[in-house]
Design brief:
The chain is an alpha+beta fold and 159 residues long. Helices cover 31% and strands 18% of the residues.
């Protein structure tokens, strides 16, 4: 297959084993800053996915809570395939550090009693949320914490 401009389109999604955290891209900007994009994969691609209310609520919760733990957060956004999220940080790549950051954020999420900004004033589809589904998905991810830094098949899949 021809090389594509979008990094994830060059990843053989059949070759990786979720859940994992992997560096998806690193950009060194002209001003000297570094942006690192992480692939935070919750579910096995093309096998299972997260339901949209869970995705939407995880997005809101993590986007809000992660900033309590890091000043480097630029963005946390869902993958259209509903298997995970992208985390964009203004710092050099460090998967172990990101795993620790996510573990702290996910622990906070499990204690949440509501989804922030889940209303029609602050959200484009405020009714499409599920705190319980988000907490269930995050708990499942946390249960696999030991495997987050093991990304089987990713190197071979992007070459």
């Amino acid at each position: 297959m021809p090389r594509m401009n979008v990094e994830s389109f060059n990843l053989d999604h059949r070759a990786v084993t979720a859940p994992y955290i992997r560096v998806a891209d690193v950009k060194h900007l002209p001003g000297g800053d570094t942006l690192t994009k992480y692939d935070i994969r919750f579910t096995q691609p093309n096998v299972t996915h997260l339901d949209m209310p869970a995705v939407h609520s995880i997005e809101h919760l993590v986007a809000e809570l992660i900033r309590n733990h890091s000043e480097a957060v630029i963005d946390f956004s869902p993958m259209g395939c509903q298997t995970g999220f992208y985390l964009l940080l203004a710092e050099e790549p460090n998967v172990s550090s990101v795993a620790t950051l996510l573990e702290a954020t996910f622990t906070d999420l499990l204690s949440a009693t509501e989804v922030p900004a889940a209303n029609e004033v602050q959200c484009g589809w405020g009714a499409n949320h599920s705190l319980s589904a988000a907490q269930e998905a995050v708990q499942a991810m946390l249960n696999e914490r030991a495997s987050w830094e093991i990304v089987e098949g990713a190197k071979e899949a992007t070459q």
